[in-house]
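Hi support team,

I submitted a single chain yesterday and got back a structure, but I'm not sure I'm reading the token output correctly. Could someone confirm the output below corresponds to the sequence I sent? I've pasted both exactly as they appear in my results page.

Thanks,
R.
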Amino acid sequence: VIDHMLPREDARDALLVHDSLAGFKGDIAALPVGTVIGTASVRRQAFLLAHNPGLKIVPLRGNVQTRIEKLRAGQVQATLLAYAGLRRLDLANEADYVFETDSMLPAAGQGAVGIERRAADTAIKDLLDPISCRKTVSCTYAERAVLDLLDGSCHTPIGAHATLDNTGMTLRACIASLDGQAF
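Hi R., thanks for writing in. Yes, this is the structure output for that exact sequence:
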């Protein structure tokens, strides 16, 4: 079971741009038609195309450093990565723009680190209880429930993000068509 989580890192998406897009201010709709953006995420692809259908989305795979190298080499003009990953790798300075969750809803669970344990192992549960962040667990469970309800997977353009404060939980979700036209 995954019933313990560390405190969640920043769940937002970050855009990294090639020098050819110097001066980008975060307005996806203002990018020129044909701008090549590399991502393997169908969620990011659909959400980008919803803002600018003239973008050219191409597959971009590899670890974070490999993707950054491909961007610098000009294979793509931009790419998106989880800001949490950049921060954890001490590469936050690579982000040219960090999207607010209002404009680019993150993937369910983005930025969260879950700890898996055997369900019957209560000794490990007791050991993990003090380091687990209940707020992160609650928010991530709610986001994953959206995926379950919509029968979502890594092949479905779904974003879900929950926040929890003293007044309760706010859960936002969005599903899009692959081309971003139905949003």
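A quick pointer for reading it: The chain has a mean pLDDT of 95. Let us know if anything else looks off.

Best,
Support desk
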